[in-house]
Amino acid sequence: MAKTAKAAATVLLLLLVLTDTHPYRTSAARPIKTVVILVMENRSFDHMLGWMKKLNPEINGVDGSESNPLNTTDPKSSKIFFGNQSHFVDPDPGHSFQAIREQIFGSADTSIDKPPMNGFAQQALSMDPNMPQSVMNGFFPEKVAVYESLVSEFAVVDRWFASVPASTQPNRLYVHSGTSHGATSNVPAQLAKGFPQRTIFEDLDDAGISFGIYFQNIPATLFYRNLRKLKYVTKFHPYDLTFKNDAKNGKLPGYVVIEQRYTDSKIEPANDDHPSHDVYQGQMFVKEVYETLRSSPQWNETLFLITYDEHGGFYDHVPTPNHGIPSPDDIVGPEPVFFQF
Ligand SMILES: *[C@@H]1O[C@H](CO)[C@@H](O)[C@H](O)[C@H]1NC(C)=O
Ligand SMILES: *[C@@H]1O[C@H](CO)[C@@H](O)[C@H](O)[C@H]1NC(C)=O
Ligand SMILES: *[C@@H]1O[C@H](CO)[C@@H](O)[C@H](O)[C@H]1NC(C)=O
Ligand SMILES: *[C@@H]1O[C@H](CO)[C@@H](O)[C@H](O)[C@H]1NC(C)=O
């Protein structure tokens, strides 16, 4: 059992590193004083940025020659090629541990050294007859125009993988603490109780570096138990009331976490990109955060990172690393997979 768990690993994500890239300013001359992190939801690299290869051939993206069979064990199975027609995605593709294992390895056999990344269409078909088309598709650049502009101006990291082949919260826990404390799924009781591991926030606090969490509705960072301490209550700021002012006044702390709206309503649509949430809302939010930072006096000393928690069930062509991945804390995940890297 443990062996199975060891083999499965991670899925490619999107990361933009936004820094001023003017060649005449050397890195030594511009120390980063503010790091801003925005973690969007449940979309793969190829789905969001794969076709950006058209803008920059150095991006390890797609050209439409990538495909998945509908049935990985049938040599005569029909194939679905990766398309450029992504639009509104509903229903939500699968991204539980078991679903991701099938997407990456094509089956539950995780002993293969280089995962073939061939089970996305098959796993999607097991959920819904139209879903293989959804997961084997990416946005054409002008459909995600904010990313199109950012990709044209800033760095794109195309070798960034989700930490755990699992859903949102285990991956979100990794972002600020380097571990999910063994979690391989979202377990409401565990989340309510809070996770006990040390986080970057305590490290920053000890080092005298300020931090702040700007949230729109629910701060997922409260799933770290330590952040519930009374002394950190002043670190949480309602985004809509404070972010623009703090940026304008040069008052952003050293480590800034932006938490977008994860919940959806007619008046306040979710803007986290999680299917079926409209990517348009996510694009508008990224644009707002970018423009706010860009016009801040702190911009010249800011590093802005945009990433995704996990791939959300969408196809990626780059094989995920699955061997020799060190465990952050030797905690073994729960049954039935006992995931331990
Ligand atoms: C950034 O701009 C401020 C003034 O707006 C200046 O004091 C500071 O030295 C600049 N930092 C760098 C790294 O250029
Ligand atoms: C996939 O193909 C195999 C071999 O042809 C067959 O046994 C199996 O039933 C197929 N699976 C599905 C879901 O059609
Ligand atoms: C996008 O896909 C369509 C249909 O599959 C194809 O005809 C077209 O050439 C593609 N466009 C680009 C720029 O690849
Ligand atoms: C990512 O997808 C799955 C299920 O659709 C969910 O469990 C996870 O929490 C997602 N994120 C959000 C914010 O819904």
From TrEMBL:
- PANTHER family annotated for this entry? NON-SPECIFIC PHOSPHOLIPASE C2, NON-SPECIFIC PHOSPHOLIPASE C4-RELATED
Q: Does the keyword Signal apply?
A: yes
SUPFAM superfamilies in the record = Alkaline phosphatase-like
Q: Which organism is it from?
A: Dorcoceras hygrometricum
Please give the superkingdom of this protein's source: Eukaryota
Signal peptide (from-to): 1-28
Pfam families membership: Phosphoesterase
Phylogenetic lineage: Eukaryota, Viridiplantae, Streptophyta, Embryophyta, Tracheophyta
In alphabetical order, the GO MF annotations are: hydrolase activity, acting on ester bonds
Name of the protein in question? Non-specific phospholipase C2
What keywords sit in the KW lines? Hydrolase, Signal
Q: Name one GO biological process term.
A: phospholipid catabolic process
Hydrolase keyword on record:
yes
